[in-house]
Structures are given as C-alpha cells and as structure tokens.
Amino acid sequence: MRIRFLFAPLLLVAVATPAAAQKCAHDPGLVLPPGFCATLFADSIPLARHMAVAPNGDVFVASMAGRPGSPRGIVALRDANHDGMADERHAWGEFRAAEVRLFDGYLYAENGTGVVRYPLKAGALEPSGPAETVVEGLPGGGNHPLKTFVIAPNGVMYVNVGTATNACQSKDRQKEVPGIDPCVERETRGGIWKFDARKLNQTQPTGEHYAVGIRNSVGMDLDPADHSLWVMQHGRDQLNLWPEYSDLASSESPAEELIHVQEHGDYGWPYCYFDVPKHELLLAPEYGGHDDVQGRCAKALGPVATFPAHWAPDGLMFYRDGNFPAKYRSGVFIAFHGSWNRAPEPQAGYRVVFQPLEHGRAAGPYENFATGFFENGKFTAIGGRPVGLAEGPDGALYIADDQHGRIWKVVYVGGR
C-alpha cells in the first residue's frame, strides 16, 4: 500500500519566496554562520533519520516510524515550486528504516536485519517494482540495532553493524562486571562489513569483515577524492560503573571519534576507549585498565579527530559540489544527536559542526555550523536532535531532526 498526498510544513520559521534557493530570510532560531540561511523544508516526518537527494532535488528520507501495515519507511519529498519547502510527499515501505541511499537506478534502504533495494526510475517518487533483498540476516537487537551503510561508485557497500552491548560485559551495564575476553561479539558486531551492492541475497558470512573494534558508526561517508571510508564512532558509556572513575570523569570521557577506516583495521572496542583529558586510547576498566593504563590499546588504531563525550554523532558528510565557501570542501560536517548521560555536567551536543581536514588529518578544532536546538540545558522553541545530513544538487545542506520530524534546508547566499 502507498500513500500520496500534498504536504505543507506545519512550522514555518523562515520567510520563503520562489527564489528561496538563491536568497532567503535568515531564521532567527537556527543559528548559522554569516552568509547562510535556512528554510524548514519539511515537517511532521516521524523519526526522520538519514536522507538521499536525487539529481532533480527530490529528497528521500528514512523514517523509523514505518511498521507492517503502515507504509512510512521511506518518505519522498518534492519541492515542485522551488520555494525551499516541500509541497508534495509520498510514503512507502512497510518497515522501520534508518538509512537510505541512491545507486545505479535503485533506492537502497536498511530494514532492521539487512539492506533491500527498490527499482526507482529517474524523476520518480515511488518505486517501479517490489523490494529485492541485497543483504539479509544481520544480527539485530541489543544496544545498537540499526544498520547504516554507504555505497561507493564501483558498487562496494560498507555496512555498519553496531554492538549489542556497551563494553562486552557478561552482564551488560552492570557495576564491576568484567568484560568477556576475548570478546566474541566482535566476530559479528562492532565493525564494518563489505558487500557488493549489485548482488542479491548476501549474508554476513558471504561478506568481508572489513574493520573491527568500532562500537557503532551511525554516521558514514566516503571521501570524494579517493572513495575511502570515514565514520563517526559512538564512544562507550558508563565508565563510572567502576570505582576508579567518578561521575564527572564518566561524563567527560570517552571522546566521540572521527575515524578514517583502514581495511582490516582494529579500532579497539571493547578493550579500549579514548580518554579526553589524556588524549589517547586507554585500556577499559572491564579489561583491567584504569585512567592511566594503555596496555594492548597501544596497538589499536586511533581517530583522526575527537569530540566531547556522549554527544552521539549520527551524521557525517563530505561537502562536494555546491556553492558553500571553499573551506567547506576540506573537511566534514557532523550531526550530533545530543547526550543523555553527561550528568553531573549539563547535557550537550544537539548541533551540526564542521571539522576542517588537511591531508587526512584534523586541521584545527571543529567549528559550530548549525546550533540553536538546545540551549542552557533545555530544548529551544525550534529544539530538536540532528541526525541525517545530505547535499542537494543545488549545493544546499539538508539536516534531519528525528525529534520533531523536520528537514532543514541550509543555503549560502553570501555576505549581507
């Protein structure tokens, strides 16, 4: 079953005109750098997650609200009159989706235990045929059940399989329970698997275990220069389950990590965590470590850049071809969903940042790009939790907020 209906956003916080793609009024709620402005492209898309934008500007959104009998796994949006706001949408796919990609005449989507694809003709908002199974039988449940993925131009598909546990304890998230050693969970979860996007009915054993020791990498993208894989890792929680770590120390570590993934690389989970004050990988307390022991973590691969603890990075995007200032082509945008476990420190995150890069390394600290969702310990009037990022053919940056189901469209209009 499919639903087709015209769509008007419920909350309009930016004045839009037919020329909104070139010029729009700055939204006083969404805080952006000088020269940028935003429109609320779409509203009321329950649990909107990641997005893919077609060459004609149609936006396909993965929705976590889909379920059997309720076609909403994929929501397709069209701005027919080019005013910066979607005026038409179609919903289809009777499953919960967290990821969506366009490749080779198909729309690919995550369905909980694998990846499916739908044939999608150019300019269409709905598929021309039923779903085909690309990958099936991936492990589900646990702390991190979602399967995000990216597809390279040659058809290589990298799939994130997040961990079932926080730190591979025999009893998850319990005080002073040692970690399983070796952690057998690493054999099927907590890493990246490589598949062929053009091949059907693949399983985890038929794929390649591309990288290990990555707890959960919801945000993923490919470097446009060489198509190498980059991810954002969610750092572990609750160091304060161990007496060596105070609540304050647990709120400040471990860092969230930007990782340039190497084939067969080992990034340390669950044995290691990235300590913020000491700025290095340290041995986790579940494996006999405390706040100054590196041990086996000396052999683990480290991050390119790090960010404050528990900010929950859910989106990662290289900016490619648009009209943003040149500096934005030398780095990545990161969407932080925001924290839940930074007590006694204030909860934080809830923003989109830009991390400059040079020669594959961090080129200075991150810069706030889109803020105003959460201030002074509470959500603002426009408040939300950024998740997905996508670039449109006109160079616009789309930001998905799964708390209110909103899609923001950010454009560059130059100096004022």
Chain-wise SSE layout:
Blueprint: E1 3-6, E2 36-42, E3 48-53, E4 59-63, E5 74-78, E6 88-92, E7 100-103, E8 106-110, E9 115-119, E10 132-135, E11 149-151, E12 156-161, E13 191-196, E14 208-212, E15 219-222, E16 229-233, H1 247-252, E17 256-260, E18 272-275, E19 280-283, E20 305-307, E21 313-318, E22 331-336, E23 351-358, E24 361-362, E25 367-370, E26 374-375, E27 378-379, E28 386-391, E29 397-401, E30 406-412
Antiparallel strand pairs: 1-6, 2-30, 3-4, 4-5, 5-6, 7-8, 8-9, 9-10, 11-12, 12-13, 13-14, 15-16, 16-17, 17-20, 18-19, 21-22, 22-23, 23-24, 23-25, 26-27, 28-29, 29-30
In words, what does this structure look like?
This protein has a 5-stranded antiparallel β-sheet with strand order 1-6-5-4-3, with no helix packed on it. Strands 21, 22, 23, 24 and 25 form a 5-stranded antiparallel β-sheet that branches. The chain has a 4-stranded antiparallel β-sheet with strand order 2-30-29-28, with no helix packed on it. It is built from 1 helix and 30 strands. It is globular and about 60 Å long. 1% of the residues lie in helices and 34% in strands. By secondary structure, it is mainly β.
